[in-house]
UniProtKB/TrEMBL annotation:
The keyword Endoplasmic reticulum does not apply. Keywords: Amino-acid biosynthesis, Pyridoxal phosphate, Transferase, Transit peptide. InterPro entries: Cys_Synth/Cystath_Beta-Synth, P-phosphate_BS, TrpB-like_PALP, TrpB-like_PALP_sf. Pfam families: PALP. Pathway: Amino-acid biosynthesis. This is Cysteine synthase A. It comes from Qipengyuania algicida. Residues 12-308 form the Tryptophan synthase beta chain-like PALP domain. CDD domains: CBS_like. GO terms for molecular function: transferase activity, transferring alkyl or aryl (other than methyl) groups. Its cofactor is pyridoxal 5'-phosphate.
């Protein structure tokens, strides 16, 4: 194994994550499926990239001054990334999140020193939605900026410049498809745009959970949601600033049950403890691999994002009572016979 040289600062630990071939998904799809190990970022999620990109962009534009504050509305992971980056650079953090997210995320944010404000989950059109609440708090707080991860394209630029380039280099320029789910859309659009710069023929696919509206938008041109999902941080009902112009070639809809099947298999068979968004992404990668094979691509290679660690969901995905209450399958090893 080639060892990386020492990093100059702790912020240099963000990005350049390993890529791993997923054996079970590869066998299932009949092609090579790779997962980008974003849980190995300092904040244990892919959102560290957006956090660093947004804060550095605000500094470069002169909006964020020494001793300032970063305010954001988030399902949790972006807030954790922002808190860590802000700590390293001397800024305060205020995070607004829906109160139905995992307890682990809330406890982590408080432990990192962020000021945490929780609000009831509601539709984006409601003025009390967590995004709108965070914007108002930023406007009311002296020296604060609003990160605005959904519409601030510094988010997707971090993936154009970073994640896409890393994938291209790690796979030696031989990648046939990429897919992931969308929350802000920064990862999907950024990686898609970045990979298309290397090779326009690479297929970029949306993997959408139930309850989100993007599958219907890209399939039929209409923002329409069907069903529901317990997945945190993914699923979108509008075209965000980061999603505008995203080069989506095809789309898949994946159920929570299918995603949980891969969460379970990756843990038991390959030793990866992941969240539900990662399981949904892997199921989407398998679907994309099968489609590419059916379309005549010889020995396709598909990459996806392993978004965050499963340790962030011990009170939910890995809690048999919570799973049963949501009418979701309980992992075999958690059942009490």
């Amino acid at each position: 194994m080639k060892l990386l040289p020492p990093r100059e600062t702790t912020l240099d630990l963000i990005g350049n994550t390993p890529l791993v071939k997923l054996e079970g998904p590869s066998r299932e799809a009949g092609c090579e499926i790779y997962g980008k190990c974003e849980f190995m970022n300092p904040g244990a999620s892919v959102k560290d990239r957006a956090a660093l990109g947004i804060i550095r962009d605000a500094e470069a534009r002169g909006e964020l001054q020494p001793g300032g504050c970063v305010v954001e509305g988030t399902a949790g992971n972006t807030g954790i990334g922002i808190a860590l980056v802000a700590n390293a650079l001397g800024y305060r953090t205020i995070i607004v999140m829906p109160d139905n997210q995992s307890r682990e995320k809330m406890d982590t944010l408080r432990a990192l020193g962020a000021e945490l404000v929780t609000v009831p989950p509601t539709k984006f059109s409601d003025c009390n939605h967590f995004v709108h609440t965070s914007r108002r708090l930023a406007e009311e707080t002296e020296g604060a900026i609003w990160a605005n991860q959904f519409d601030n394209t510094a988010n997707r630029k971090a993936h154009i410049d970073g994640t896409a380039r890393e994938l291209w280099e790690q796979l030696d320029g031989r990648i046939d498809g990429f897919t992931c789910a969308a929350g802000t859309g920064g990862t999907l659009a950024g990686v898609g745009l970045g990979l298309k710069e290397f090779d326009e023929a690479i297929t970029i696919a949306l993997t959408d959970p139930h309850g989100a509206a993007l599958y219907n938008y890209f399939a039929n041109g209409e923002l329409q949601a069907e069903g529901s999902s317990v997945a945190e941080g993914i699923g979108q009902g509008r075209i965000t600033g980061n999603l505008e112009g995203a080069p989506i070639d095809t789309q898949f809809r994946i159920s929570d049950g299918e995603g949980l099947k891969w969460v379970a298999r990756l843990l038991r068979e390959e030793g990866l403890c992941l969240g539900l968004s990662s399981g949904i992404n892997v199921a989407g990668a398998i679907a994309l691999g099968r489609k590419l094979k059916a379309d005549g691509v010889a020995e396709p290679r598909v990459a996806t994002i392993l978004c965050d660690t499963g340790f962030r969901y011990l009170s939910t995905l890995y809690n048999p009572e919570w799973l049963a209450a949501k009418d979701l399958p309980v992992f075999d090893w958690l059942r009490e016979d």
